[in-house]
Design a protein that fits this description.
By secondary structure, the protein is mainly alpha-helical. It is 69% helix and 3% strand.
Length: 270
C-alpha cells in the first residue's frame, strides 16, 4: 500500500535526514491516514490476515509520527486533543505488540505449518508470509523508537518540547516487546528446522507420497484414496528413487525458507 510505504520513508527520513522533511509531505500523509480503515475494509477479501494486521500497525505508527512532526503547528486550542491522539496511537502500538506476542507464544504452530505424523516440520507460505511481514513491522517500530530517542537528545528547551516524546523507560518497554516477538519467531523457525532435519524425516516424507503414513503431511491428504493412489505410483519405474529425490528438493526449499527467516534481524539504533 502506497501510504504504508510513505510511512516507512518518513520514519527513515526522521532518523537519518530530519532537515530534508517537508512540512507539506507530513501534512499530506497525515490527511490520508484516516482513509486506511475504510481501504482495508474495502479490500478485505483481497488481503491476508497478516497484511491487514500489519497495515493497522502502520496506521498507528503513522499517526504517532505525523503528530510529533506536526507539533510545532499545534495551537493551544488543539494541543490537548492532539496529545490524546498521540497517546492513543502509542497505546495501540503497544497493544499490537502484546497481541502479536500472545498469538506467537500460544498458537504459532496451530496454522501455517505442515505437520508430519503429528509433528510440525515445515513452513507453509502462510507461515513465511507472517514471519517476514511481522519482522518488517518490528523493524518499523524499532526505527520509530530510534527516532524518538534521537529527538529526545536534541530537543529544544522550549515549553512542551517533549510533549510528543516517549520517556526512556517507555521506549525500553516497547523495545523489549519487539525483541521478545523477534525471538519467538526465530525460535519457532529453529524448532521447525530441527524437526525437518531429524532422523527419518526424509523417509517419512517419501512414505507420505505413497500414502503409507497414516496422518502424514497435512498437505498430502490421507485415507483410502491416498493409499490407493500411492500403490499405483509404486508401480512406476524407479518410483522410490524419484520420490526420494523430489522430497529431498522440497525439504531443501523448506529449509531455505526457514534460514531466510533466521537471517532477518531487527536492527537496533543507538
Amino acid at each position: 500500500m502506497k501510504t504504508c510505504n510513505a510511512i516507512a520513508d518518513l520514519l527513515h527520513e526522521e532518523y537519518y535526514e530530519p532537515p530534508s522533511i517537508k512540512q507539506d509531505d507530513i501534512e499530506e500523509l497525515a490527511s490520508t491516514l484516516d482513509d486506511i480503515p475504510q481501504l482495508l475494509k474495502t479490500a478485505h477479501d483481497e488481503l491476508t490476515e497478516t497484511e491487514i494486521n500489519n497495515c493497522n500497525l502502520q496506521l498507528h505508527l503513522g499517526k504517532a509520527l505525523t503528530l510529533r512532526l506536526l507539533q510545532p503547528a499545534t495551537t493551544p486550542n488543539t494541543a490537548d486533543s492532539t496529545k490524546v491522539n498521540f497517546d492513543n496511537a502509542i497505546k495501540s502500538i503497544q497493544d499490537w505488540l502484546k497481541d502479536t506476542l500472545k498469538k506467537l507464544t500460544n498458537h504459532f504452530f496451530n496454522h501455517g505449518v505442515i505437520h508430519l505424523a503429528g509433528t510440525p516440520i515445515a513452513p507453509s507460505w502462510k507461515y513465511l508470509h507472517s514471519a517476514f511481514s511481522t519482522l518488517e513491522s518490528l523493524q518499523a517500530i524499532s526505527l520509530f523508537l530510534a527516532g524518538q530517542a534521537k529527538a529526545s537528545k536534541t530537543r529544544s528547551k522550549a515549553k512542551n518540547s517533549s510533549t510528543f516524546l516517549l520517556p526512556a523507560e517507555q521506549r525500553k518497554t516497547i523495545q523489549a516487546l519487539v525483541e521478545q516477538i523477534e525471538r519467538s519467531i526465530h525460535d519457532s523457525a529453529r524448532k521447525l528446522k530441527d524437526n525437518l532435519n531429524a532422523s527419518g524425516v526424509l523417509g517419512q516424507l517419501v512414505d507420505s507420497v505413497f500414502g503409507r503414513v497414516a496422518g502424514g503431511a497435512e498437505s498430502e491428504g490421507s485415507g483410502d484414496a491416498s493409499e490407493a493412489f500411492g500403490k499405483e505410483l509404486e508401480k512406476l519405474p524407479d518410483a522410490e528413487t524419484v520420490a526420494e529425490g523430489f522430497c529431498a528438493e522440497v525439504r531443501e526449499g523448506w529449509e531455505e525458507g526457514l534460514e531466510g527467516v533466521l537471517s532477518v534481524g531487527v536492527k537496533r539504533w543507538k
